Known about the structure:
By secondary structure, the protein is an alpha/beta fold. The protein has a domain at about 90-105 and about 225-425: Rossmann fold (3-Layer(aba) Sandwich), CATH 3.40.50.1100. It has helices spanning about 15-20, 40-45, 50-65, 70-80, 110-130, 145-150, 170-180, 195-205, 210-215, 225-240, 260-270, 285-290, 315-325, 330-340, 350-355, 365-380, 385-400, 420-425, 450-465, and strands spanning about 1-5, 15, 30, 90-95, 100, 135-140, 160-165, 185-190, 215-220, 250-255, 275-280, 295, 345, 360, 405-410, 445-450. It has a six-stranded mixed beta sheet with strand order 4-5-15-10-11-14, sandwiched between helices. Strands 9-6-7-8-16 form a five-stranded parallel beta sheet, sandwiched between helices. Helix 3 (about 50-65) packs across helix 10 (about 225-240) and helix 4 packs across helix 5 (about 110-130). It is globular, with a radius of gyration of 20 Å. Bound molecules: pyridoxal-5'-phosphate. Pyridoxal-5'-phosphate binds near residues 386 and 411.
Amino acid sequence: xxxxxxxxxxxxxxxxxxxxxxxxxxxxxxxxxxxxxxxxxxxxxxxxxxxxxxxxxxxxxxxxxxxxxxxxxxxxxxxxxxxxxxxxxxxxxxxxxxxxxxxxxxxxxxxxxxxxxxxxxxxxxxxxxxxxxxxxxxxxxxxxxxxxxxxxxxxxxxxxxxxxxxxxxxxxxxxxxxxxxxxxxxxxxxxxxxxxxxxxxxxxxxxxxxxxxxxxxxxxxxxxxxxxxxxxxxxxxxxxxxxxxxxxxxxxxxxxxxxxxxxxxxxxxxxxxxxxxxxxxxxxxxxxxxxxxxxxxxxxxxxxxxxxxxxxxxxxxxxxxxxxxxxxxxxxxxxxxxxxxxxxxxxxxxxxxxxxxxxxxxxxxxxxxxxxxxxxxxxxxxxxxxxxxxxxxxxxxxxxxxxxxxxxxxxxxxxxxxxxxxxxxxxxxxxxxxxxxxxxxxxxxxxxxxxxxxxxxxxxxxxxxxx
Length: 467
Ligand SMILES: *Cc1c(COP(=O)(O)O)cnc(C)c1O
């Protein structure tokens, strides 16, 4: 499979090179030249397969040419071996026609593990084969950083730097990044918001000399392999509830738009998905954009669901590219409009295409807390605030179309956000076994200003010391 950039001016790459690149050299995002098409009988044949085997089937056409079948099987099996639930991604029923796909049984208790564990295995393999090293940089609103540090900690080929917004991640999230004690992973507390961290990372990638000097690699959901690994659980979840014989909708707690975008690609590949429901917290740029056609970031507000406290949703660029008929010139124009005016207008034909697949709902802080309380009272399940945003949006979709089952993605374990969960339900969820002493471990904290040069200098010094 070949990969092209949304901005049309970067070289076309094979899977392994797109994996190592992360962001394209023209500032765009890579995506596959074509999408494999799944017929109903192939979808049906996923029934009852172990998760890793289903993952191999879904991912194989995308990695072909670079990973052979035995290699794909081995690295996929290794990626999902560390999950704490035999079903890897189990489904629970919450209400009539409303289900939760639990994606938080991985090593760091958030759905990010599904993609990051696979990415860690895949990158390590490519780098070892090439005898190469890489510097991985990423921005995190909390969960990506923990997942990346867990996936890459101790690997010989990589030095990992994760930028997180100081004081804006939960204690559990911060400690998952600062207590690992592996010399090749570095969590950097930036004096700013997530969007500042993401901007610094994008600027460092945009400095092509620095990028080459440091051999930068990206693990944010700008990396296509993240999206790819997430497509799998849409297939697995839908098949478990009766696809391809019946269609369902997915409600997806959304920040950077990577997770729900994976659902969009699953649909484009032939999975019978009815509505893709974008669920946001009070940082509702995507809800406003779908309603008005006007994409206009505002200031970020801190909420109970910090992993979604994002204004600039990077992966929306991939959807805009698809909705504008894969026209890179249209994308370049929109992105320069965003850079100069701080906003852009989505063309009406593109907006119509987006609305044909997506709905978007904003869930405010009160509704989020009430949803956690309601699910606990009515089903005994304790869910986290991010998952609650998805469940609440799922209920809104069900009110409009009661006959279509809705699968809400459970994106984090409640123990990652114990304060918000306790306020809403009265229950303080304990951390599962391997993390039970997390709050007593020793932290190492490196603070840096909200400044690209300061971060670049730190990376240079630290990577040089390690080489
Ligand atoms: C990252 C994250 C999200 C948002 O996912 P995107 O792919 O960025 O839209 C939602 N919930 C949790 C718990 C997360 O960690």
